[in-house]
Amino acid sequence: MRRAIYAAVAATALLGTAAQANVILLAKGSIDGSSAGIGKDLSGLTGTLENGVAANILGGMGSALAYAGGTTFLATPDRGPNAVSYNSAVDDTTSYISRFQTLDLQLVQNAAGSPLPFSLSTLLYKTTLLSSPTALTYGTGAGLGLGSGAPANNTANTYYFTGRSDNFGDGNSGNPDNARFDPEGIRVSNDGNSVFVSDEYGPYVRQFDRRTGQLIKTFTLPANLDVANLSPKGDTEISGNTSGRVANKGMEGLAITPDGKTLVGIMQAPLIQDAADPATGKLLRIVTVDIATGATHEYGYNLTTGSGVSEIVALNDHTFLVDERDGKGLGDGSTAKVKQIFKIDIAGAADITNLTGAAAAAAAVAKPASPFLDVVATLGAAGVTGANVPVKIEGMAVGQDVTLNGTLYHTLFIANDNDFVPGVAGTNQFFVYGFTDADVPGFAAQQVAAIPEPKIWAMLIAGFGLIGAALRRRARTILPA
């Protein structure tokens, strides 16, 4: 099996402005399989989905990326493979079971003179399916040319969330019993026992047990995010509502403050009611959720040149990086232009929950004119053309610190969503950047407690055939050749 561990092959790139001078490209890597095989995850699922795609397909994992301490990361695919046309009545969505992947992403320092300071070794070693211990509402498929949307894997105490768009019941899009789920953001609790996942269908923010994937709670979000009239077809749902999130552009990003007390979600696009007003045509809403009390607040974020936002990650309890992007690049057959990371500070910002129009726009969070990081520019300087920069740069996580030439760098891991079509959008890729305290005064990393993991062995394989076995911090299974 071809290894999913790639040696870095591009030159280190420094950003052009003074504010960005210490942000450097440290490594790049990719993953295309697991011990189950190329293109397969470790869910253990068998059979195929409604569109003929394998139920254990590996892909899309860069929709969200979370740091879990050490060299452990969690990656979340979105609602599943819907690139294969089979039933437009449900937007070609399937009963793909929602899940997260547990990865080992380790930076290995290269010898002096190497193209990049580090290589990134990658390993998928666990897949966790997301479920509810109580019954969820699934579509019957009646009138849609389909059978029930309930997964055959359901049991009396396990009801799986899936990506099929007709899996909803009565009420608005915030009904917590709806089975349809489109994971787009993931973060880990400080005690390491829970994961928080945001989605686009509700939008929802749900808390799951990290070990079992079973639902713990669903947070109540502001009512102005919900849509009243639901449909399996996104376009119909959009046209049938005058307020709430735009279909497929819900809570795309999720952060957690380093103290582990507050979740911070961001909408991908303006709400329907905001988009209808020229004053707020580029205004996105940031939603904070107090984990203990459920109390929420909203803050405004104005787009610069991107068409939407895909992720938010915390640098301390009030400073965040926001991933703003276009829909161009590898996967679209075009040239990427906008994949920019902006640094914002919500300290002292006004709550816009009850504001609309010019008042909401005027209260938006202050934003610098220049990005903290221009991904297209840095990858271009490293030899990656715009046509090969992934369209969907969506996952971001602050990872482990490294030292390079005597300087301590904090790391920012960035991942892409390849929509489960590697032949079109490339593999699941990771780009690792380094920044210093000078770039982010007051930086505070989240400290996630370690949880017990299976002890297995692994072999480190460098991308160009240099093979060496090493005892890693955690032992792992040796993948077959």
Automatic annotation (TrEMBL):
Record InterPro entries: Haem_d1_sf (IPR011048), Phytase-like_dom (IPR027372), WD40/YVTN_repeat-like_dom_sf (IPR015943)
Keyword Signal assigned: yes
Domain Phytase-like: 58-420
SUPFAM superfamilies documented for this protein: C-terminal (heme d1) domain of cytochrome cd1-nitrite reductase
Keywords, alphabetical: Signal
Endpoints of the signal sequence: 1-21
Segments crossing the lipid bilayer: none
PANTHER family: BLR7070 PROTEIN, PHYTASE-LIKE DOMAIN-CONTAINING PROTEIN
Identification of the protein by name: Esterase-like activity of phytase family protein
Lineage: Bacteria, Pseudomonadati, Pseudomonadota, Alphaproteobacteria, Sphingomonadales
